[in-house]
Amino acid sequence: MQIWHDNMPYGKIAERKGHQGWMKQEGSYFIFPGGGTMFPDGAERYIEKLTQYVPLKSGLLRTGLDMGCGVASFGGFLLKENIITLSFAPRDSHKSQIQFALERGIPAFLLMMGTRRLPFPAQSFDFVHCSRCLIPFTAYNGSYLIEVDRLLRPGGYLIISGPPVQWKEQEKEWGELQAMTRSLCYELIIVDGNTAIWKKPAKASCLPNQNESGLDLCSTNDDPDEAWYFKLKECVSKVSLVEEIAVGSIDKWPDRLSKPSARASLMDDGANLFEADTQKWSKRVSYYKMSLGVKLGTAHIRNVMDMNAFFGGLATAVASDPVWVMNVVPAQKPLTLGVIYDRGLIGVYHDWCEPFSTYPRTYDLIHADGINSLITDPKSGKSRCDLFDVMLEMDRILRPEGTTVIRDSPDVIEKAVHVAQSIRWIAQVHDSEPESGSTEKILVATKTFWKVPLTSK
Length: 457
Ligand SMILES: C[S@@+](CC[C@H](N)C(=O)[O-])C[C@H]1O[C@@H](n2cnc3c(N)ncnc32)[C@H](O)[C@@H]1O
Hints:
Elements: E1 2-4, H1 12-17, E2 24-26, E3 29-31, H2 43-51, E4 63-67, H3 73-78, E5 84-89, H4 97-103, E6 108-110, E7 125-131, H5 139-151, E8 152-161, H6 171-183, E9 187-192, E10 195-199, E11 216-217, E12 235-236, H7 262-266, H8 270-290, E13 303-306, H9 313-317, E14 324-330, H10 337-342, E15 347-350, E16 363-369, H11 387-397, E17 398-408, H12 410-422, E18 425-431, E19 441-447
Parallel strand pairs: 4-5, 4-7, 5-6, 7-8, 11-12, 13-14, 13-16, 14-15, 16-17
Antiparallel strand pairs: 1-3, 2-3, 8-10, 9-10, 17-19, 18-19
Bound molecules: S-adenosylmethionine.
S-adenosylmethionine (SAM) binds near residues 37, 67, 70, 94 and 133.
Subcellular location: Endomembrane system; Membrane
Organism: Brachypodium distachyon (Purple false brome)
Keywords: Glycoprotein, Methyltransferase, Signal-anchor, Transferase, Transmembrane
């Protein structure tokens, strides 16, 4: 794994973490030997060790969350096992770690565990991992561990390597972590050195019966799927579906990709909508590849963003291409992101009237289906922000020579073409798929490689 040094000429991590094998500079490249703070001998050997206790190579586990990921080597090496890990970390003393992860083509997101819920639905991740992620799980009345519990799928695994697990001078925190996991009825699978692994029950919470940590269940008003600008809670969320979507009940990867989960079927006409959406995107993606020259399926496109993902139909249609897709479900739209996770795909909630939490030039293809709907208030029908600002944000995120595909009515596409030209994209407008009978237009644009000329004094 290597990237051009000049694409991101920031040497701090290589200098400070080179001895742990995070990354090194070699000539014109940065190389990534695969090491980390808790796995200096490489993520591959660490994953082998975990596989003794966690079924990482069986298809049972597909979606992971790596908290405090460094340059995301753990998630990167799991891709070989057909596991997709959403790796996250903030920009802190570890500098542009997430930008390096994305430059490597590994799914990653700029985020920190702070005061708000993480922007994911409840019961999404088949496992949650932290290797020396520095998150104090039991502080603040346990609200960080409670957040992890919200995100973990029933029957899923929690893996913590490093402090406080059997860590000198963190005996108190280690005791508290064990007590809290017992209160949540997690099964302690193993404590192996500084690695502890638990399995979350695949049944409803046992909290009211067994609770040495004094944890409370949230009231019925709490919607565990709400996670956009939502303060962390100190109570454990109640959920309606448990056994149906647990690890072991849900189909193995890749079968789960094409089956509507119980969560999809709960929605109005959910199972039919799911099937229709899957068919629609399969046709659309063939049209993009065969007729519109979109280079999906080639080495030109690796990091893909679907700005309006609904059930993840686009990501499903490209699942056998060498890409990964960030499925974004707008916070103002129905909360369908749980269904996307049930399929074995990943994504986040976001409001497109705000900047997206990533570095510049980190995606190769950005797709916006119904771009105007992303900025329209669903109640009043009025625009909440300007199309120009959204497209400028897309331009920031897009790699030079990357592609955007925007679909909407002819009048919205006309406006979008105007913006595209003003930001120097090369734009072409196409009719929608011939058999669709739709009047919708498709704008396919390429971001050109240009620099603001230096002014001479
Ligand atoms: C010592 S490094 C470990 C990195 C990686 N997990 C490994 O084992 O090599 C600590 C990581 O935790 C991240 N981190 C620290 N506090 C965090 C927080 N509150 N939320 C998310 N990540 C955090 C840091 O940015 C960094 O990526």
